[in-house]
Design goal:
about 130 residues, 2 domains, 2 strands
Length: about 130
């Protein structure tokens, strides 16, 4: 079963649970069982929050990014440091210590002092076969 179909099934279950909790909460308010009504409405809100969180998580996992030099689309959830096909550097990360650098760090890593050889958008020399 694909992730999209599984996510759709979960959202439908969340929707049904929300409707049932709200319906039961309204019944409890009309039957003078207000505490139970509040519990049901709280449960409905919890299910809504869970469905929004699951929706955001699914959206985030399906995001696509583009290579800066090749304009190729790839899954952003892979958290690539280098473009998978050609080896173009995608993130400003020190090759020596692996720390994320700010955009102002052009020549030296402020953490380890190593010279930054490969800039964002450049292909490493060992991978540059074109």
């Amino acid at each position: 079963m694909t992730k999209s179909i599984l996510f759709l099934i979960i959202l439908i279950i969340f929707l049904i649970l929300t409707v049932l909790f709200i319906k039961q909460g309204i019944k409890c308010f009309s039957a003078d069982a207000q505490v139970l009504g509040y519990v049901n409405l709280f449960a409905a809100m919890a299910v809504i929050i869970c469905s929004l969180w699951a929706g955001y998580d699914y959206y985030d996992s399906q995001k696509q990014d583009f290579c800066t030099t090749r304009h190729y689309e790839y899954q952003a959830n892979e958290k690539y440091d280098y473009y998978p096909q050609y080896g173009t550097k995608l993130k400003n990360i020190c090759d020596n210590c692996g720390k994320t650098l700010s955009d102002n760090d052009f020549n030296l890593c402020p953490y380890c002092g190593n010279k930054i050889e490969i800039k964002i958008g450049e292909i490493p020399v060992k991978n540059n076969k074109e």
